[in-house]
Amino acid sequence: MPTPRRIYEDYAYSNTARAECIWPRPKGDWRAIEGDNDCEVAVIGGGFTGLSAAMHLAEAGAAVTLLEAEHIGWGASGRNGGFCTIGGDKLGLGAIRKRFGDDATRAYFTAQRGAVELVAELLERYKIDAETHSDGELLLAHTPSAMKGLRSEQADWAALGHPAELIPASDLKARGMNGAFHGGLILPLGFALNPGRYVSGLARAASEAGVRLSPHSPVSQIDEIEGRHVLTTPTARITAKQLIIATNGYSSDGLPNWLSGRYLPVQSNILVTRQLTEDEIVAQGWSTDLMAYDSRSLLHYFRLLPDGRFLFGARGNIGASVEGQAAMRARLKQHLSAMFPAWRDVETPHFWSGLISLSRDLLPYAGPIGNSNTAWAGLNYHGNGVAMGTWTGARLADMALGRITSLPVHTRKLPRFPFPALRRNYLYPAFAGYRLKDGPPPK
Predict the structure, then answer these.
(1) What is the CA radius of gyration of the chain?
(2) Is the pTM of this model over 0.85?
(3) Among 294, 242, 309, 313, which residue's Cα sits nearest to residue 65?
């Protein structure tokens, strides 16, 4: 088989990219796998999707080995913004309805809602203290025309049976949402959490269910021999009846061949301030505990953390290097200062980056690897993987257990990007166009 290939520079996959991440990492007596091993199901990827799939399988009685290249929760699951919300696609319900029909669209929205509910259920069932807050999510208009879009979105939510609250610009400050915005819409589903604590809780639950967690066990080769999946790591060979791949933006082309070109990793970045004083919070007028994002194509996402620090994230960098990281850090600091001017001089000691993943058709995927009936994959959550990744893992477990064979929208022929080896280059014109459309950060 060809040598597995990742499409970013090594920096994107290094510990340096996440060195300043504030979230705690899972701790347990888990070691790299060694020697020859057999199991019923091998899961590759130790994030939300992989842990959820492994845990649900083990609870159903399956013998599961989970393989993670770094420590458990090392990738996007352990370094994201902690937005447990509906989402997973960038296509929109209207376009989904045109392609798949009304019934599939309703099922897709039900799945999104169920994904949020599943995370809440797991937090309760396994007594995971994930520092949750935010009853819903706040979408903020960055231009007057964007406010018109929020009114349309409010009608869409009402049609789905979930009324959303529209807030005019004049009321934002009184609601503790003061910034350079033209109004807001409170979407009634979702909550914020500490993703490090959540992924740690999932890891503990999976381990207690009997999953063999194997960190520092990067898979370098996948073969199919006599109907079994044979996985090779630097120190082990694992033979499994069934296989689940849950590596999302940290996938490798060629591992397996089917995956090549069917995902596009995109860097997302987070800046965190020091703890703000009460006077500083009052001066800016941002005291809401709602997680929030703005209406830009290259959106900003932000929230006031329970300990008083402010988390501020965005996308937009394409190169992966120390210099690129420094430039993106400066850009985020500039945007933070423009949108929340009272915090212009507040120190921002933490900055890190990670990889989300997109599909060519802008939809998440959960289904078989090619035509296999013993191998499945879940990926491409478009930056909303906390809930959707957890839910997808549970559904992949259902597929492996024979409970379901497909999902109305998630399971389809996952298209490849044209000229897949060059697909990162598509981001250059796309991001340039988004920046032109979005305009400068508000002042």
Answers:
(1) 21
(2) yes
(3) 242
